[in-house]
Design brief:
Blueprint: H1 4-14, H2 23-35, H3 37-55, H4 65-78, H5 84-98, H6 101-129, H7 143-168
Length: about 170
């Protein structure tokens, strides 16, 4: 036999029509519904609700709804501010829009300059922090390379001496 919770879940899954999927589920649900008045009332209420929803027709929208809504929005926008924060915002906005900007221009210019300098230095610090340093160049040659260079210069000197002796003969 099914519990009240199982019946409620099954009814919600099966709406509309509340026909249970398996024969065993139908038998268990019918048996539970015969003994449980609360579940029978719940099922009847859901059935009435679904029939009422099927019969309900949505009303046609008012053709002047958008016109009235736009007028109402315009009224709200033009209404004076009521809160302390809103009044402060309105006064700052009026000051910036309608005058006395010459007092704020140096402050705004300084703030913008600081933002540009801070942003630029942060960017450069970020870029330079993530670049790999160039590998160190060895200025002194290893001993093997130096020995080979000495042998090369010695052979050049010997060739030069040999040429001189051949020319003298």
């Amino acid at each position: 036999m099914m519990s009240c919770k199982q019946i409620q879940d099954a009814v919600m899954e099966q709406l509309p029509g509340t026909d249970f999927r398996t024969l065993e589920a139908i038998e268990n649900a019918q048996e539970h519904l015969q003994h449980c008045q609360a579940c029978r009332e719940e099922l009847a209420g859901m059935d009435r609700l679904m029939r009422a929803m099927d019969d309900w027709q949505a009303p046609d929208p008012n053709p002047y709804f958008m016109t009235r809504m736009s007028v109402r929005l315009a009224e709200e926008r033009s209404a004076p501010a009521t809160g302390r924060l809103a009044q402060l915002w309105q006064s700052l906005r009026a000051r910036m829009t309608y005058g006395q900007r010459w007092r704020l221009q140096p402050v705004l210019a300084t703030t913008l300059s600081l933002l540009v300098i801070t942003g630029g230095s942060a960017y450069l610090g970020f870029v330079h922090a993530h670049t790999q340093p160039a590998p160190a160049v060895i200025t002194t040659s290893p001993a093997v390379v130096q020995d080979l260079q000495n042998l090369d210069s010695n052979s050049t000197a010997l060739d030069t001496l040999e040429n001189l002796t051949n020319n003298a003969d």
